[in-house]
Design brief:
- The complex is a heterodimer.
- Chain A is mainly α.
- Chain A has 9 helices and no strands.
- Chain A folds into 2 domains: 108 residues, Rna Polymerase Sigma Factor, Chain: A; 72 residues, Winged helix-like DNA-binding domain superfamily/Winged helix DNA-binding domain (Arc Repressor Mutant, subunit A, Orthogonal Bundle).
- Helix content of chain A is 60%, strand content 0%.
- In chain A, helix 6 crosses helix 9 and helix 7 crosses helix 9.
- The N terminus of chain A is likely disordered.
- Chain B is an all-alpha fold.
- Chain B has a single domain, classed as Orthogonal Bundle (Arc Repressor Mutant, subunit A).
- Chain B starts with a helix and ends with a helix.
- Classes of the chains: A mainly alpha, B mainly alpha.
- Chains A and B meet through helix 3, helix 4, helix 6, helix 7 and helix 9 of A and helix 1, helix 3 and helix 4 of B.
- The site of zinc ion (ZN) has 6 residues of chain B, from helix 1 and helix 3.
Chain lengths: 232, 89
């Protein structure tokens, strides 16, 4: 499904997110008439913990997944989740409501995640503005047709492992952009804003991330017996 | 005339369907004539689809519970400030 360029009004957003939850295998207390998000945000702003807990319940998995992919270990991901949620609760006043609540929340989580990475290894590869040769052509090595629906050959657990491993092999700048754009399905503009990058930088990093993942997944998903073609 | 290099450069926009119609037509013509670029496009598209199809996993219970406890503590701290100004005096 492609996101329309125009942002849907809030009630539609709430509905869409609920459908997403309903589609997962988890049994939460299914609320037949979910409270609209901006109502929850308003209540939580007044210090209502129950309202904020409902927001937490809606987004904790996605925040945790994003953090986990960036920091790449469970303990740091949990720290990020807690710090991000506590900060969000404390600073809800500064949430303007111009953006979606999730975009605001995930921005906090991404910043916390990147801080963790920087702290852990005062490593230059963590920098998002690291000068990568963006005008260099993306590299493509393996060109092979995939099996039809290769993902159906694996159990959910196996598939998750394959996909996570592929993301984990990317550099921080690439995996962060990919997660926000193609996993969390934020727009290019939202991603640029969260990461403090230009639109062009988001686009070029995203393409490189996609090509690198494609390359790795091809090794697993390619149709057996097919010749690998060369590429210029 | 679109070369394979041109195609790769435009691939991101093409996948996101944000190319202008003229460029789009050129790129479409290229992949009908160039099997390599067709495979790259097709497998990139599938890469994106397979990730989009993954729901986030539920949080482990202990992680969720620790989070809720931390929030309750924070709420209590704030509650003291907001509800009991005399406690500050
Ligand atoms: Zn080509």
């Amino acid at each position: 499904m492609h996101h329309p360029p125009v942002r849907p009004p809030r009630p539609m957003l709430a509905l869409k997110l609920d459908e997403r939850m309903a589609g997962s295998s988890i049994k939460d207390d299914a609320d037949p008439a979910p409270v609209e998000e901006f109502v929850l945000v308003e209540q939580a702003r007044g210090g209502d913990l129950a309202a904020f807990s409902e927001l937490v319940r809606r987004y904790e998995r996605r925040v945790y997944r994003t953090a986990r992919h960036i920091v790449q270990n469970d303990e740091d991901a949990e720290d990020v989740l807690q710090e991000a949620m506590l900060k969000a609760f404390e600073h809800l006043d500064s949430f303007q409501g111009h953006s979606k609540f999730y975009t605001w929340l995930v921005r906090i989580a991404v910043n916390e995640s990147l801080m963790k990475l920087r702290k852990r290894k005062s490593d230059r590869s963590v920098s998002l503005d690291e000068s990568i040769e963006t005008d260099e052509e993306p590299i493509v090595r393996e060109i092979a047709v995939w099996d039809d629906n290769p993902e159906q050959r694996y159990s959910q657990t196996e598939l998750r492992e394959i996909l996570d491993k592929a993301i984990d092999s990317l550099k921080p700048i690439f995996r962060t952009v990919f997660i926000l754009r193609d996993v969390e399905e934020l727009s290019t503009e939202e991603t640029a804003e969260i990461l403090g990058l230009s639109i062009a930088a988001v686009k070029s990093r995203l393409l490189r991330a996609r090509l690198q993942l494609r390359e790795r997944l091809t090794r697993t998903f390619k149709r057996k017996g097919d010749q690998i073609l060369g590429y210029v | 005339m679109v070369t394979c290099k041109d195609f790769l450069r435009e691939l991101g926009e093409y996948l996101d369907e944000t190319t202008d119609p003229a460029t789009r037509a050129d790129l479409e013509r290229h992949i009908t004539e160039c099997p390599n670029c067709w495979v790259i496009f097709d497998t990139c598209k599938k890469t994106i689809q397979v990730y989009k199809g993954m729901d986030p996993q539920p949080l482990p219970d202990p992680v969720h519970n620790r989070l809720m406890r931390a929030l309750e503590q924070k709420a209590q701290q704030r509650g003291v400030k907001a509800d009991c100004p005399e406690a500050q005096a």
